[in-house]
């Protein structure tokens, strides 16, 4: 699996667990079970992400994006 695929999978899992957590707060027992299962999946994908991101960083595939300055920040500087 590539890093971008892993990131997408991680984002989807996080959104799914977050949505179900709201349902758990209202007393939904089935959602609580989905959260428990989701956290196990989340752990696996998070470990894969760490492994892939370190490999990509060492291989030079990850590049830091230059921070953009907003118009207000530029005006304050002048």
Helix content: over 70%
Question: Are there runs of 5+ residues with pLDDT below 50, and where?
Answer: none
> Strand content of the residues, in percent?
under 5%
Radius of gyration: 19 Å
Shape: flat
The termini sit apart by 47 Å
Sheet/helix structural class: mainly alpha
**Sheet bearing the most strands, described?**
none
How many H/I helical runs?
3
What's the short version?
It is built from three helices and no strands. It has 78 residues and is an all-alpha fold. Helix 1 runs antiparallel to helix 2.
Topology:
Elements: H1 3-25, H2 29-58, H3 71-77
Helix pairs in contact: 1-2
List keywords for this structure.
78 residues
How does this model look, in words?
There is one protein chain. The chain is mainly α and 78 residues long. The chain is built from three helices and no strands. The chain is flat and about 55 Å long. The N and C termini lie far apart (47 Å). The mean pLDDT is 88.
